[in-house]
Fold this protein.
Amino acid sequence: MLPTGHVPQVDSGRRLGASVTVMIASSRDGHVVVIELQRDERRNALNLELCHAIRAAADEAVVGGARAVVVTGRGTSFCAGADLDGVYGPEFLDALYGMLHHLTTLPVPLIAAVNGPAIGGGTQLAMACDLRVADTSARFAVPVARNGLAVDAWTMRTLAQLAGTGAARRMMLAAETLDRDEALQRGLVDRAGSLDDAIAWAHEIAELAPLAIAHGKLVLNGVINDAEIEKGFAAVWASSDVEEAARARAERRVPVFEGR
């Protein structure tokens, strides 16, 4: 297991322009990939390049065979939201929402290891993940009422589904912040814990049946239509993993799923 708070650096930075370097790193341990945002000097605030880099890193993890992905931030913040020194406009919004919505369509579960404040786009990034593990310093806010901006309907509806309508209204209309304990109590956070705890949970999930998880995620996220749901349902039941589970039960052992 990786030491607490540390992710070995695979890609320390990508030169995306004459004066812009996006810091993001990915590491792999078996079927689990950890993606770490590394703009800690900006509290991991999202700009155009970082949005593209998160999406690319997640895609690379899936293509490389990851069965679970952990997303976290280096330093004392998970993600401070949109970079206030950046440029707001169609290109940034397309990159931000394209990245968020794309994460919900990936066929593997993503776990947000929220190691500090997740503000604005940080809360959105955590919600785009399927599960959230948060340490004591985590807090969540979508302060559009303070900065005069707006978020899309997906953000508001997902926030209401996870945290409850009352908490979502307080966050959206009164710019209130949820600390870790309230977020855990209301369901916005699934488990209290550190990055190590999130990685350990990811390893547990990675041992489960990949096809069943992918089907469940896509249905829960509402990103596939009825025909695709039926097709996915049938594919899971026809898979070799179903046969493996039956053999494992008969042999009184833990099944070894291959995702086919």
Notes: The longest helix spans residues 48-63. The two ends are 27 Å apart (CA to CA). The domain at 14-206 is CATH 3.90.226.10 (2-enoyl-CoA Hydratase; Chain A, domain 1). The CA atoms of residues 68 and 109 lie 5 Å apart.
